[in-house]
Amino acid sequence: MRGRGRSPGYCGDVDFGDRLFADPDINWQPVSPALVKERRLPAGVLGLAGAGLVVLGSRASAGGWVLVAVGLAVVAIAAALWFIVVPRIVASWRYAEREQDLLVSHGRLQRRLSVVPYGRMQVIEVSANPISRRLGIATVTLVTASAATDATIPGVPNEAASQLRDRLAAKGEAAAAGL
């Protein structure tokens, strides 16, 4: 019988749902907190648009209350994204290098764990848009033989991204040589 308030993966003293995606025995690396700033930008733009609707509605003579109501709703959604959703989503991203593979885990509601064997890596891409460059972070993407592999790690500090790229390339070459 399942206890109250327990997650669906809970059994006794071990919560298999959490352990599957965040094994405490693995040395997980978090992404940079600067990723929160980058991911908050769309919420900020949405909030400004909502504020614009409020101002426009307050100056309208007839039916302005509709614009004010919609604007306030948009501002509330933007605030929830800014303060609650974005920080939690960014905090869910993590990666770990193991002897034979790389683990990438992310997601709050829909969790995802990708295991990428070093021998399957074909290309390691490091990219950064202008905002990422300003914040000193990059995205590391692993391209494998499988098109379905989701092996993207956003928000890696530039120096760590460079080192990760070099380590993964060396491990990939070593694994390919051993095949």
UniProtKB/TrEMBL annotation:
Transmembrane segments: 41-58, 64-85
Pfam family, one: bPH_2
UniProt key word tRNA-binding: no
InterPro entries attached to this UniProt entry: YdbS-like_PH
Domain of life per record: Bacteria
PANTHER family the UniProt entry points to: TRANSMEMBRANE PROTEIN-RELATED, UPF0699 TRANSMEMBRANE PROTEIN YDBS
Protein name (Swiss-Prot/TrEMBL): Transmembrane protein, distant homology with ydbS
Organism annotation: uncultured Nocardioidaceae bacterium
